[in-house]
Amino acid sequence: MIERVKGTRDFLPEEMAKRRWVFERIREVFERYNFKEILTPVMEYTKLFELRSGEEVVRQLYAFKDKGGRDVSLRPDMTSSVARLYVNQFQNAPKPIKWYYIANMFRYEEPQSGRYREFWQAGVELIGSDKVEADAEVISLFVESYLSVGLKDFTVNIGDRVLLDEFAKMLGVKDDIGLMRIIDKKDKLTQEEFIDELKKFGLDDVGVEKVLSLVEIKGRPSEVLPKAEELFKSEKGKGEIRRLYELVDLLDAYGVSSWVMIDLGIARGFDYYTSVVFEAIAPNDLGIGSIGGGGRYDNLIEVFGGRPTPATGFAIGIERLIPILEWKDLIPEIDLSPDVYVVPVGDTKREAISIASRLRREGIKAEVELMGRKLRKALDYANRIKAKTTIIVGRKDLERGVVTIRDMESGEQREVKVEEVVEEVKRFLKK
Q: Where is the Aminoacyl-transfer RNA synthetases class-II family profile domain positioned along the sequence (predicted)?
């Protein structure tokens, strides 16, 4: 017996129905903001991801040589592919470009709660605007995406890579990216482990204390931003804090500010972020941390050979979101049973198929007996698949121009004229 590859899953019909429900709710919100759907190849040249995905992601690539000896990889995220697509074809297109995707990604990492080697993301990229209005639009959409699936108990925590850069300068740290990677892992480490990592990085006790103070600057914007003003005195720092104030004000105009927190200890894992970064956290007992995140990446398109172009976006982790929705009982029961089960009795296959086809063309979910079961076993099967009604198509009934409709819940049966079957089934389903 050949088993499935580690870190991947088989989705059964019930699971697919739940996933489709989630995808469609999110898709509706994306399109209300007038984002347009795209899909890039699942496989790209490895160089694309090596250029700017960060060391950790590069180590996790599913990378291999194709039969032509070319180095290719399965995509670990979509942002790099979107930037490549933009550079290839859309540099002269009207701005902003607003794209969304719902697609599968691949990373070779150890599977755990909410984490698989094949996973799905729903995300957006807004390309061409360096304005704070673009950040606000994307973060508002991020919030409303979670609200669309019924999730209300969550926060969107906003940080800023510019402020972290300024903080690294204040500490005298040259490897600011290295420091950010350690800060980004803080929630996965104990306090002792975090301090130990900072000391290995080269910080003295004073530097460690400053980092610990920084990562504690989190809470409501009205409380946190004044503290940030006290900490950051450079002109660049002051300018970024003004941008955060404006961002918070615009998010209030969008009506989503009650979900927003400021957390200056957020770095996000990708090296390409340049300013505002954010992530969503939903309290749970499942061991699941961030359920999505994003931020501004104003330099990435230039790295891929394009003209300097600002951009921002996010990705929602579907494999993390759905378990939380199930845990909170927010995904509705989805009925996969057929409305009608059509059973030919005797030599009536053509007529049974004709009736089922008429029902299907009218949008009614119909199944036809395909196994040659006798009537009693067919009715047993109808109960097992939870069919709402069964239409029994017998030769003698057809000679009188009728078929028998059976209500599978009550067991009641009645004869209906063949030409009136569709309308009769519609009336029954409306009850």
A: 22-338
- 56 pLDDT above the threshold of 70: no
Which tokens go with 50? 């090596």
Q: Which residues of 250-273 are buried (b: 16+ CB within 10 A; e: fewer)?
A: bbeeeebbebbbbbbbbbbbbbbb
The helix/strand/coil state of 269 is: coil
Encoded tokens for 334: 């989805």
Classify 312 as helix, strand or coil.
strand
Question: Closest by alpha carbon to 181, among 54, 51, 50?
Answer: 54
Residue 380: predicted pLDDT: 97
C-alpha angle 139/145/151, rounded to 5°? 115
Residues 143-187 pLDDT 10s: 999 999 999 999 999 999 998 888 888 777 767 677 777 777 777
Write phi, then psi, for 229 (nearest 5 degrees): -60, -35
Q: In whole angstroms, what is the distance from residue 125 CA to residue 342 CA?
A: 48
- Taking the C-alpha atoms of residue 201 and residue 116, their distance in angstroms, rounded to an integer, is 30
Environment class of 233 (CB within 10 Å of its CB; exposed 0-12, middle 13-18, buried 19+)? exposed
**Which tens digit of pLDDT belongs to each residue from 374-429?**
999 999 999 999 999 999 999 999 999 999 999 999 999 999 999 999 999 999 99
